[in-house]
TrEMBL record:
Cross-referenced InterPro entries: Thioredoxin-like_sf, Thioredoxin_CS, Thioredoxin_domain, TPR-like_helical_dom_sf
Record CDD domains: ybbN (cd02956)
Protein name, as recorded: Tetratricopeptide repeat protein
PROSITE patterns found in the cross-reference section: THIOREDOXIN_1, THIOREDOXIN_2
Keywords: Disulfide bond, Electron transport, Redox-active center, Transport
Bias (Low complexity) ranges: 167-192
Family under the similarity heading: Belongs to the thioredoxin family.
Amino acid sequence: MQPRNMSMSGVVDLAAVKAAGEAKQKAEQSRADAAEGGGPPAPSGLVMDVDEAGFEADVLQRSAEVPVVIDFWAEWCEPCKQLGPLLERLAREYAGRFLLAKIDVDQNQMLFQQFGVQGIPAVFAVVAGQALPLFQGAAPEQQIRETLDQLIQVSEQRFGITGLQGVPGEATEAGEGAEEAAGPQAPEPPENAALAAAHSALDSGDLNGAVQAYKNVLSDEPGNTEAQLGLAQAELLGRVQGLDAQQVRAEAADRPTDVGAQLRAADLELVGGHVEDAFGRIVETVKRTAGDDRESARLRLLELFEVVGADDPRVVTARSALARVLF
């Protein structure tokens, strides 16, 4: 699987809307603490072997100041032996713009399961405590570089996370040669002001404004994937706003045939990070219903697929499950 065209609006966990402001504050505090403590870590700290015991400190907490890329690998995995050294070299070359956390899946089964990893090597990122999939399997270096560049750009623009400052880089002949061969860089396309306004409204919690702004973009550009994803996310957040989680769960348990109750519960599960539970609930709802009820459940599941991202392995698994119950 090739690295996806990553957009934080489409693949980041929904809690990122709230986390954006908190992450900026944490990043500023972390940078201040680092300055008082004598600066950033040595380049050797750019690559870490992480286990379940150290995950919170090494990954979650660090992700408030620098994007953390996670490489799920195993000793017996041949593609891992190709991808791992490449990621380590890029971590040193990028000089603190991201950290690399290497997780041995044989020794850390709980993390393997929590991230929903379907196969290795698998590469995820954590930004401001929010996890998102980057790609699975070995990939060409240039495509990996593009994915990392997107990750760094989005982390800074959406969360104010600029990475570690002052870490010496490691120039590579391949990198220098690529820059020389590429020649003058083409100017970046102008920013879509309407889309930026929609993102801003979503980040600030103005869900009604975000929904309308994304619809405005789509009225002019019906095929704008980023706006489609943003709209799905904003609408989901709007649906769960004000819901009593305990009451929703109780209603879903008491009324298994009530499609509305099941869909509300699935929305809350997805927002809470329980992606597989949300997908499984709706697939079961599709299975036990017919007619308009079935169609409503099916369409809601497709909307949630958009929120999580089509390349996410959990979406791939749920699509197969949906196909089995439909056909």
